Amino acid sequence: MKAVVWHGKRDVRTERVDDPQILNPRDAIVEVTTTAICGSDLHIYNGLIPAMEPGDVLGHEFMGNVVECGSAVKNLKAGDRVIVPFAIACGACEPCTRGQTSLCANANPNAEVLDVMYGHSGGGLFGYSHLYGGYAGGQAQYVRVPFADFGPVKVPQEIPDERAVLLTDIFPTGYMAAENCDIRDGDVVAIWGCGPVGQFAIVSAFMLGAARVIAIDRFNYRLRRAKAAGAETINHDEVDNVLEALYEVTGGRGPDAVIDCVGMEAHGQSPDAAVDYAKQAVKLEMDRPHALRELIMACGVGGRVSVAGVYAGFADTFPIGALFGKGLQLRGGQTHVHRYMQPLLERVASGSVDPSVVISHRGTLDDAPQLYSTFARHDDDCLKVVLSGA
Ligand SMILES: NC(=O)c1ccc[n+]([C@@H]2O[C@H](COP(=O)([O-])OP(=O)(O)OC[C@H]3O[C@@H](n4cnc5c(N)ncnc54)[C@H](O)[C@@H]3O)[C@@H](O)[C@H]2O)c1
Ligand SMILES: [Zn+2]
Ligand SMILES: [Zn+2]
User: Is 196 exposed, middle or buried (0-12, 13-18, 19+ CB in 10 A)?
Assistant: First the structure.
């Protein structure tokens, strides 16, 4: 079959690889109809996620038709059209029964590495390095879906792929990011990063009762999309100081809650950002946490800090004093995507949210190398790329 394969930093190729096979009774094979490129894939593309191996098949946002089921999969049959959660989860372990499916205790066969790096390992992810299980991803014609009796959700025929596929990650991710803010009616929520995740965090913050959302990025085309969703905007390259800009528009209080939708590749021109660039380049620091520092400093007293952006290792000059001194609460992590897919699918089915509005670029698997580059360089006002599985 055809698949999008990682070969090294900024080296992604569409190649022939072996077709996936059923390995376990709870597996299914899905023929991919639509898959997407995520900001998380860009961290891999830019060579910042450890434990990638040349030949790894990328992709964790995908949907398609079931073609084969293992003997234990009774809820699906060939021909069913499904969206597949990006996190792999058994549904029965302790984290899964708490609804924390991205932390499944049975999904990561390589857990011993993260046990050392983080104290305990999270679960398994499609197409996201050998740290997270080394599973082949969904930017391919076919994919093996483990625990298929638990994860995939059937999609009614009348919902087109482009409205459904983003339920496999970024709509739930934006939603959980907003939920982690415990938004109260009347809250002002500030969101760093207006990529696809930031866009869904904006929509979700309003859904959960925010009175005002202030969105921060440096790309005007992304800020325009944020504005269309009702946010006020700050271009961080056009203001002297983001903290002062936020101070001004919140009457000096700062936002009630802040969300990081940027992650480990933050841009910035301040001295801390310059040090991060230099240290990340020589692998002395895994993450560039400039936005994270800034949003903790900006958050009002007693506020909530939600981290949806991906971080991999250790951050320098983390403002722990501000976090402590202002009594902030911090939450984050990989999205427990299973628990949001069905309720958010219902919002899509009712027409109250159309996730496809963020899609700017479409192509086939053969177009993936070019479209990875377009998305990574923010060329051509690129906001979200979807690929047909052909
Ligand atoms: N928690 C999860 O489960 C989960 C799921 C999906 C994606 N993510 C992560 O969410 C993050 C965003 O994903 P995306 O698809 O929207 O990616 P993206 O790369 O399209 O968007 C990131 C945005 O952050 C902006 N940015 C960079 N530096 C900034 C700064 N200093 N201040 C404000 N904005 C800044 C960029 O201009 C860009 O628009 C990534 O780190 C991704 O890995 C996490
Ligand atoms: Zn993703
Ligand atoms: Zn589990």
Answer: buried
Rounded Cα gap, residues 217 and 297, in angstroms: 17
Q: Which two tokens stand for residue 271?
A: 């001295």
Residue nearest to atom 16 of ligand 1 (CA): 195
Domains and CATH numbers, the chain: 2-169+335-388 (3.90.180.10), 171-332 (3.40.50.720)
- Ligand 1 atom 3, closest CA: 334
Whole-model pTM above 0.85? yes
Starting from the CA of residue 214, give the closest ligand.
Answer: 1
Which one of the ligands is nearest to 309 CA? 1
Report the atom number in ligand 1 closest to the C-alpha of 199. 16
Q: Could you tell me the pLDDT band of residue 36, with boundaries at 50, 70 and 90?
A: very high
The mean pLDDT value for 259-280 works out to 94
H-state helical runs in 168-313: 170-179, 196-207, 220-228, 242-249, 271-281, 290-298
Quickly state the pLDDT bin for 285 (edges 50, 70, 90).
confident
CB atoms within 10 A of CB 141: 22
Distance 99 CA to ligand 3 centre (A): 9
Cα 60 to Cα 123: distance, rounded to the nearest angstrom? 14
Q: pLDDT of 66-109, one tens digit each?
A: 999 999 999 999 999 999 999 999 999 999 999 999 999 999 99
Tell me if 251 sits within 8 A of 226, measured CB to CB.
no
Give ligand 1 pocket residues (Cβ under 6 A): 38-40, 42-43, 169-170, 173, 192-198, 216-219, 222, 236, 261-263, 266-268, 290-291, 308-310, 334-335
